[in-house]
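User: Um, any thoughts?
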Amino acid sequence: MNQYLQLFLKRVSNSDTVPISLRNQGIFRHVIRICKLLHMNELEITVWSLHLEEIHWAMCSLSLDFFLAITAMQAKDYLNDEAEVEMYVSRVNEEYAGFKEAYEKWVEKRENGVRLAIKEINRQYNKYRLVSSEFTLAQPSTMSFTVGPKSIDYNKSVEDLLKMNPRDANRPQAAVIFLLNFIDR
């Protein structure tokens, strides 16, 4: 999981809309676990966060992990085709027994599903993407680039790039050049 996804997830877990009763439950760990399980991308996380805000984190009688898995799946369902969603529903059902039935009941109960305007998604995505002073991802002992009070660990970014493209693993300079080009945007 790259630093930008972690930043998005940190913002979801630190949202003002998260009920106080959940803030002491290590919500960030739960959010990361669900994101990894569903292989969520930045856009899906953005839709997920908007959906959580829309329903005001109303968990009914569900456990936190179950609630997060169901709402994250609904965000995936909003952005992906039915076959892909069905694959992930099966995968989560292996991790959490009874998930498929609970998810189907949740969707049936909320027949309107996720309804978001493109402008709303764009606004939230840009808000989450902005470099912010409230979160620092770099370790103090690593090479990092600082933009104001925000720190990004570029060593980790290069490692992430190398993991994504194994054929360039023997050519770290290719990843560094890619990263430098990315920074200049």
